[in-house]
Write a structure and sequence with these properties.
Blueprint: E1 3-4, H1 5-19, H2 25-50, H3 58-74, H4 76-81, H5 91-114, H6 121-139, E2 155-157, E3 160-162, H7 165-187, H8 190-197, H9 202-207, H10 212-238, H11 248-262, H12 266-291, H13 298-312, H14 318-325, E4 329-330, E5 356-367, E6 370-381, E7 385-389, H15 396-402, E8 411-416, E9 419-420, H16 426-431, E10 434-436, H17 449-455, H18 465-469, H19 474-490, H20 506-519, E11 524-528, H21 536-551, E12 555-559, H22 563-569, E13 572-577, E14 580-585, H23 587-592, H24 594-600, H25 604-611
Parallel strand pairs: 1-4, 7-12, 7-13, 10-11, 11-12
Antiparallel strand pairs: 2-3, 5-6, 5-8, 8-9, 13-14
Helix pairs in contact: 2-7, 2-10, 2-11, 2-12, 3-5, 3-6, 3-10, 5-10, 7-10, 8-17, 11-12, 11-13, 17-19, 17-20, 19-20, 22-25
The protein binds adenosine-5'-diphosphate and magnesium ion.
Adenosine-5'-diphosphate (ADP) binds at residues 367, 370, 372, 390, 392-398.
Length: 612
């Protein structure tokens, strides 16, 4: 049977819809819960698997969604406050609105507080507020304390009533599938690339013009809203709420689901919810019989199981399932919407050759007692290649960070396109036309070369999250991908565009970084050791490319160890030693400078050799 995974998915959904009415009540209930859990887990896939932020506290957001509607539907205060004759059937929808609003507010606040925490402090922070919200539910009298609220009405829409799993289940699964579709679209867009870039480290993402703090909060809010939506449906399925299902150990279970299913994969959320829910059913039946007493033993079994899964299948089960099913599934050959006509991306007019684009004035950087940069002056002009050289530890990387917004000078001034820039984040450098590569390559290894390079054009697009989710971004996306492909071909990697970046040789990965920088249409290009790891022919090709870019009017600053490469290519050279500039001039002038020859001691052969 040769069908694609897409067709299989659609067939599965159709089959489920057909037999739904024939399933026993108990199965329908379990299926409905799986859908509810998967909705929360899908948010966690986005947050944890894609965005790299771990949260144990999602159950609290489910609770906000559930309690909001429970309160609205049952509170005499609400009934008194609403206009007389307000149809009671609309109360759950008011509850949904309130739940989403409250969750939005709480998630924004908690996000702005906790997401600043780094490393293990972030998950610990989520445990802290997860517990707090649980106890708030339990201790608020208006929410019924630990007894909760009973007597919720069923969801109704016109004359339709969704009172039982038979009717509410399809709504739940409909919402889930819609959410998966929207999230899938989001990940497959300009904004999705920016979200994935969060995992590549803040420095890289910010250099591509992504406001990482903003994206982290947005992702956090998105996951929270999905949880609240699940809570709203849950409340009207269960028809009563109490704090127990919103406790921190349920929060841990949600994370189990995402991780076991495959934290980087949306369908992994469904698989994880399915497995954990069924397993929990079984364990709750069997464990008390085996152990002869009742208690939450399944949580211990879960913990052990999670360890095993993470040991054996670090990426969760979904990629395994995918890999295994690939044998008998036809690959999806969906083209990126050939019918749309690409829009024109934002273009930058490059400054005329010879104009100063990047300038440092007396830039110093102190690390404790060490003066890593000592009043460094340097200018980069449009249409020139400027090389920064110096022995190891001379302060080149420190300076590079200072003029690209990664670090702030202790004193001195950095100007880009005439604007004073010290203290500003690197995304503002990117906005003004600075493109850069990294000494230690920072690519998303699992993503294709094309995707990596397209991230470089992030700033040139406009479409936001909602447009991406609804697929309204296709014309712009086509333009971005076309631009990325153009830069890849120009850099000589056209054949490798669809390969995962990590499968390329290190030297090629450096070139991918150059292509990524070029996709942002920079005026100033900063390259940290671009020739390292390149073979002789590749170095020559790189020199030809940089020469071409120079003639197009780019200003290029290279930090490089390969003297032959530098001497043949650079128009001007600045030499650093112990953080200070000891020489500046043309390659010929620098090579004749006795201080430079001294500084290089053993390396003087290198210089002389390159001169010959
Ligand atoms: P280069 O790139 O020329 O090899 P660097 O700029 O990396 O030199 O380092 C210059 C000096 O500053 C070195 O002595 C290094 O140990 C020191 N240094 C660099 N970064 C830091 C830091 N974050 N904290 C403390 N010292 C640093
Ligand atoms: Mg360095």
């Amino acid at each position: 049977m040769m069908i694609t995974s897409r067709q299989l998915t659609l067939a599965g959904i159709a089959a489920l819809a057909l037999v739904w009415g024939l399933l026993p009540e108990f199965t329908l209930t379990v299926m409905s819960y799986i859908g509810l859990y998967a909705l929360v887990a899908a948010g966690l896939v986005m947050l944890t698997g894609v965005g790299g932020m771990t949260s144990f506290g999602q159950a609290a957001f489910v609770g906000l969604g559930a309690y909001a509607t429970a309160w609205v539907c049952t509170s005499p205060w609400v009934a008194a406050w609403l206009p007389a004759g307000f149809p009671r059937a609309l109360l759950p929808w008011v509850g949904l609105l309130l739940g989403l609003l409250v969750t939005y507010g709480v998630a924004r606040f908690l996000g702005s507080v906790t997401l600043r925490l780094s490393g293990h402090y972030l998950p610990l922070g989520t445990i802290a507020w997860g517990l707090s919200i649980y106890y708030i539910f339990g201790n608020l009298d208006v929410l019924g304390g630990f007894t909760g609220i009973t007597g919720l009405p069923p969801l109704t829409l016109g004359s339709l009533s969704f009172a039982t799993p038979l009717y509410l289940g399809p709504v739940i699964w409909g919402v889930l599938l819609l959410a998966l579709w929207a999230l899938h679209n989001l990940l497959d867009s300009r904004e999705g690339r920016a979200i994935r870039a969060l995992k590549g480290g803040r420095v890289m993402a910010e250099s591509m013009g992504v406001d990482t703090a903003h994206y982290r909060i947005k992702l956090f809010v998105l996951a929270a809203l999905l949880a609240a939506l699940s809570g709203w449906l849950y409340a009207h399925l269960q028809r009563f709420v109490n704090p127990t299902p919103f406790n921190i150990n349920i929060g841990i279970e949600y994370l189990f689901m995402a991780v076991v299913g495959g934290a980087g994969y949306l369908w992994g959320a469904v698989l994880g919810a399915l497995l954990i829910t069924l397993l929990k059913e079984q364990l709750q039946d069997w464990l008390p019989r085996l152990l002869g007493s009742s208690g939450n033993f399944e949580i211990i079994v879960f913990g052990l199981l999670m360890l095993v899964v993470l040991q054996r299948f670090a990426d969760g089960l979904w990629p395994r399932l995918n890999h295994w099913s690939a044998r008998w599934l036809r690959p999806d050959t969906r083209q990126a919407a050939p019918s749309v006509r690409p829009v024109t991306l934002a273009q930058r007019t490059l400054p005329p050759a010879g104009e100063v684009i990047l300038q440092s004035r007396d830039v110093s950087r102190r690390f404790g007692g060490l003066l890593a940069n000592d009043a460094v002056n340097m200018t980069l002009k449009a249409g020139e290649v400027h090389a920064l050289i110096g022995p190891n530890g001379a302060g080149k990387s420190t300076f590079f960070n200072m003029i690209s917004g990664v670090d702030t000078p202790s004193s001195g001034e950095v100007r880009l396109m005439g604007a004073v820039m010290q203290g500003k984040p690197s995304r503002e450098f990117a906005a003004l036309g600075l493109g850069r590569t990294f000494q230690h390559v920072r690519l998303l290894g699992q993503r294709s070369v094309l995707e990596n390079v397209a991230l470089g054009a992030h700033r040139r697009g406009r479409q936001g999250w909602i447009a991406s989710m609804l697929r309204l971004d296709r014309a712009e996306e086509a333009a971005i991908l076309a631009e990325a492909r153009r830069q890849i071909e120009r850099c000589g990697l056209g054949d490798l565009a669809d390969r995962p970046a990590a499968s390329l040789a290190l030297g090629q990965q450096r070139v991918v970084e150059i292509a990524r920088a070029l996709a942002g249409q920079p005026a100033a290009l900063l390259l940290d050791e671009p020739a390292a790891g390149l073979r002789h022919l590749e170095k020559q090709a790189l020199a030809v490319l940089l020469d071409q870019l120079r003639s197009e009017g780019l200003g290029i600053l290279v930090v490089e160890h390969d003297m032959e490469f530098v001497m043949n290519l650079a128009d001007r050279i600045t030499v650093l030693e112990f953080g200070a500039v000891i020489a500046e001039g043309t390659p010929a002038q620098v090579q004749a400078n006795p201080r430079v020859l001294d500084a290089y001691l053993g390396g003087s052969d290198d210089l002389a050799g390159a001169a010959a």
